[in-house]
What does this fold into?
Amino acid sequence: MKIPKRFKLMGQTIEIVYDSTISDMDGCAGLAKYRWNQIVLQPDTNGVKRPLSKIEQTFCHELVHWIFYMASENKLRANEKLVDTIAGLLHQALSTMEHEDND
It folds into this structure.
């Protein structure tokens, strides 16, 4: 799967930002910044090694937070187990999709 630069939810543009310092926040790997319309991701760096699959999964996790936020489902948004489970399923579906060639 490809992590986008930005996407839209309900007319709002959500930007993807990489910040190598967020792991300093209790080992944080990603953040959904609602007031800034951002998903912040910890990239792979010399100090913090992160495989691409982990960064993709973190993106999906933060995307699910955003979806629940936009749906005004705050109890679901706060349920980390549910968010992580849906994100894992979403990541697997997106990363294993097979497409027909359009030759």
